[in-house]
Design brief:
rod-shaped, mainly alpha, about 85% helix, about 100 residues
């Protein structure tokens, strides 16, 4: 497999990881919204158990989403940086070589 094909596959995988992280963050945001609705519409102030369960479940979801999103974004950025460095090295190598006649 050529390095360009491997790099494209790596970027696609990084994009999928980032998308999973974004999906988990969206799920956590929905859970926070649900928790807020439960707290605001609760008729009995002492019955906060469901809201606390939802809030407690949203914490690992948001942590996992943040981790996956960050890993995906950093991987894509590092891949793009590596490609840019290879392109700069190639251009610098072409500028040093004398023209062939």
């Amino acid at each position: 497999m050529q390095s360009a094909a491997y790099d494209l596959e790596f970027r696609e995988q990084s994009g999928r990881i980032r998308d999973w992280g974004a999906g988990l963050l969206l799920l956590a945001a929905l859970m926070w919204g649900w928790c807020a609705i439960l707290l605001l519409t609760s008729k009995v102030a002492d019955d906060w158990s469901e809201a606390l369960v939802v809030l407690g479940l949203s914490v690992p979801v948001s942590v996992a989403g943040t981790a996956l999103f960050t890993i995906g974004m950093v991987s894509r950025r590092m891949s793009a940086h590596g490609q840019a460095m290879r392109d700069l090295d190639r251009l610098a190598g072409e500028a040093v070589r004398p023209p062939t006649t």
